[in-house]
Specification:
Shape: globular
Number of helices: 6
Strand content: 25-35%
CATH class: Alpha Beta
Number of domains: 1
Order of helices and strands: HEEEEHHEHHEEEEHEE
Largest sheet: 9 strands, mixed
Oligomer: single chain
């Protein structure tokens, strides 16, 4: 067995991941999109989470319709060898797969002709869209602590639901990884059964929406035995 095969089979290895926090303006206040993981899932079973998942190698090959905002690419690449492009593309793909919601901007004619759709991207690219880095705000990063059955280095992107290119209540195209997809009022979200880190992210989102967030992106680094907190 080669080194690459061993990495694939070793589920304790930290994998890069990306999640999307969609925020929608509702009459009763802001709401966020969440879904429930299956009760037999190896990672966070039965918990309510944001749409997201691991970065695939092919994600780095998907061109963006617009580049991320000033400072976003630098923060995403800090303490990492992974490109901002790969993370933004992965977040877009995971949102599409897990919810059926389309986020992006139309591809140019030249891009549309030049890009051959790789596995995992054929459905999304067939819509004529490309991931939109400028619609995503990098707001949080966290590494899963040691001892868990799966570990991720997750980046969280805040996105206004008005940027969607599909009906925000239409989840008919979603795969079955998340159930009970719903827009949860931010004021009620923490009453749901969710991972601790999701609660922490929600507090950060509330601060963002109220204009009282601190400079920099919070980073909970659990890559070692001791947990560290810093701002990127």
């Amino acid at each position: 067995m080669g080194q690459a095969d061993a990495r694939v089979l070793d589920k304790s290895q930290i994998r890069d991941a990306a999640s999307v926090i969609l925020v929608r303006k509702m009459a009763e206040g802001p709401a966020i999109l969440m879904g429930q993981r299956g009760k037999t899932a190896a990672f966070m079973p039965s918990k309510f989470v944001f749409p997201g998942g691991a970065v695939d190698e092919v994600d780095a090959t998907i061109p963006l319709a617009r580049q991320p905002l000033v400072g976003c690419a630098e923060a995403l690449s800090a303490l990492s060898n992974l490109s901002a492009q790969a993370l933004i593309a992965a977040a877009t793909r995971e949102l599409w797969e897990e919810t059926g919601l389309l986020l992006g901007r139309p591809a140019s004619e030249a891009d549309d002709e030049a890009l051959a759709a790789p596995p995992g991207w054929r459905g999304y690219l067939a819509t004529g869209m490309r991931p939109d880095g400028a619609a995503m705000r990098f707001v949080f990063r966290a590494i899963t602590p040691p001892g868990r059955p799966r570990r991720f280095d997750a980046r969280f992107f805040l996105v206004d639901a008005e940027a969607l290119r599909s009906v925000p209540d239409d989840f008919s195209g979603a795969e079955d990884e998340l159930s009970h997809l719903q827009w949860v009022p931010l004021s009620e979200a923490r009453s749901f059964d969710m991972p601790f880190i999701t609660e922490v992210v929600l507090a950060e989102i509330a601060a963002h929406l109220e204009g009282r967030n601190h400079p920099g992106v919070p980073f909970f680094d659990n890559s070692g035995e001791e947990s560290r907190f810093e701002r990127l």
